[in-house]
Amino acid sequence: MIDDAQLLEQLKSDTYKEQAFKTLLTLYKERLYWHIRNIVKSHDDADDVLQNTFIKIYKNINNFKGESKLFSWMYRIATNESITFINKNAKRLQVTSEEVQQIAINNLTTDVYFEGDAIQLKLQQAIATLPHKQQLVFNMKYFEDIKYKDMAHILETSEGALKASYHIAVKKIEDYLTKN
Q1: Quick one: which of 127, 109, 37, 118 has its CA closest to 78?
Q2: Could you list the residue ranges that cross the membrane (predicted)?
Q3: By C-alpha distance, which of 147, 125, 127 is closest to 136?
Q4: pLDDT tens digits, residue range 104-114?
């Protein structure tokens, strides 16, 4: 098993870059897909954003300074690509990014890749009512079990702020679920 330091060295090498990138895809594709999917909701959109994410990673790997974990750096790119995707859709449809997310949630019932039941759909609706940052924090902690320390690197904020955001998000979701 290759560690991140070796993988990074190979990714930055002209000789091993292609093979190392295939390894990177194998190691992180599924985790990044689900991270993106939690943000954009739709399978097809998540696939598009995932592809853009890996293109960006490939093009910018030489700019990675190693100040955070490789995983955190890639998650930051995936998060930013997801937000950019939502904002572009909002602009194209001439609606707010919140409305784009609501449309995506409404479309979940017709998404053949959505395997959730009515309870999971209700949870997605509750998450969509949260401010964007709280959505990210909740999804990363609840669905992906990302540690606050790693999340702080990904979202470039303090662990304390993330813990507070998560706590507030949970309360808002509980309120939504009891009222709806």
Answers
A1: 37
A2: none
A3: 127
A4: 777 766 666 66
CB 169 within 8 A of CB 142: no
Q: What are phi and psi of 44, to 5 degrees?
A: -60, -45
> Rounded to the nearest 10 degrees, what angle do helices 70-93 and 97-107 cross at?
90
List the structure tokens of 106: 């409404």
pTM of the model: 0.80
CA distances in angstroms from 24 to 19, 120, 132, listed in the order given: 9, 31, 28
Cβ atoms of 16 and 2 closer than 8 Å: no
- CATH number, span 116-180: 1.10.10.10
Topology at the third CATH level for domain 1-96: Rna Polymerase Sigma Factor; Chain: A (1.10.1740)
Residue in the structure block whose two tokens are 């937000």: 83
